[in-house]
Amino acid sequence: MAKTDSKKFPNKFPTIQQCESKGRQDHTVVADMDGTLLVGRSSFPYFALVAFEVGGIFRLLFLVLASPLAGLLYYFISESAGIRVLIFATFVGMKVSDIESVARAVLPKFYSSDLHPETWRVFSSCGKRCVLTANPRIMVEAFLKEYLGVDMVIGTEICTYKGRATGFVNEPEILVGENKAKALQKAFGSKSAPHIGIGDRKTDFPFMNLCKESYIVRPVPGVKPMNQDKLPKPIVFHDGRLVQKPDPLMALLIILWIPVGFLLACLRIAAGALLPMPLVYYAFWTLGVRVKVKGYPPPQAQKSTGQTGVLFICSHRTLLDPIFLSTALGRPIPAVTYSLSRLSEIISPIKTVRLSRDRVTDANMIKKLLEEGDLVICPEGTTCRESFLLRFSALFAELTDELVPVAMSNKMSMFHGTTARGWKGMDPFYFFMNPSPSYEVTFLNKLPYDLTCRAGKSSHDVANYIQRTIAATLSYECTNFTRKDKYRALAGNDGTVTPKNGLAQKKVMGC
Questions:
Q1: What 8-state DSSP symbol labels residue 348?
Q2: What does the pLDDT look like over 442-471, one tens digit per residue?
Q3: d(CA 359, CA 299)
Q4: In degrees rounded to 5, what are phi and psi of residue 510?
Q5: CA distance 299 to 310
Q6: What are the TM regions of this chain, as residue ranges (predicted)?
Q7: pTM exceeds 0.70, yes or no
Q8: CA 394/CA 375 separation, integer angstroms
């Protein structure tokens, strides 16, 4: 590779639109990240996500207060100094394992929604892919390697001490300007220059000049990020509380809204828990919670006539699904669940019954509950945020032929009402902290008896049929992913928690 000479950089590189992407299978590409591989030129939103998901509202506030200083240094002193402030404000004192967890479970969703279509056209066409970025490698590596098939990630290395980040960085310091070029030379050696270098600003010129071909990604207003369905690997699972990417203004709004939103959430939860169920629907509307009901639910079971209850089979979006089903029906419907926090059980306006995941025990419990009336179950076993349905457990199909599929969907503008890594007791609060959350409950036709186990169908066939029916209603995609798949992807475990209760211990499965 040629020696860099900052005085000989060309003032203008060809634009990325001029780069031919065909026949690049044997080529190596090196690209910057912010403003190049991503449409957005600012890394603040991703630092803000780490700050909030690991450190909470006060860490996010610290970052927001530090951001004017970071911007001043970045634009008027040096790019490196500005990034140092962001790294310090975000990472100081954090556990490295927590940062890695957020990088694996939270950031990919936001990164994938901001991919630059022209850069990706070229980047994805090359056989070997490298990303060279000033961002901390710990933040970006999981997404780049797992979802974009990147072979090598060269980024700023944060300094750690006893498993915690110090807020400082290791040599060779922040990877900008000449430091990027030196890092590229070290990674590729002096004889194997990358075929393509892609950047978006003057401080990328040093490493771009080392590549056989160099292209610039110029900021063009109105460029729309690439559709996520073109990713090599779809993002089915993701975690984190924030719905939108928090730019500085959004981060400030979140900080200001949380105290107000928490009080509003308490009021909404109290209305749902204390008012008679026929009035909850109207109370929710008054308090800004929208509930839309479609389809025709079956009549209420009458125990006096010997009619057993129906089993409502719901898609699982949050742990509030059974509550909004009851709201739509105007009467409380008991729910069986694999796991609930004690707080969620206390504030729940409906009866909740925990399943043990022992088939015989659970089957007997469900049969007994159905003899008393209607019942609701979410056979996915855990929630999924994206437009996918996880594999349905087939146990419910073996217990009754009175099956009513229910398609549940919801919309949240600020906070997600689910978590895999955090405390689930806050899930209902975060859902109701949204300014105007909504739920849509669609009752489908009761399953004909000739499609149930009574007609000789296997329980797996029945479960798969109902899954496909609900998916078609919601325009979702069916998958074979399970609860364990979700927790392995997001939390690095299979969702099993072993709490202590005196001397006794029992396994409880995360929801």
A1: -
A2: 999 999 999 999 999 999 999 999 999 999
A3: 29
A4: -65, 150
A5: 9
A6: 46-66, 251-284
A7: yes
A8: 16
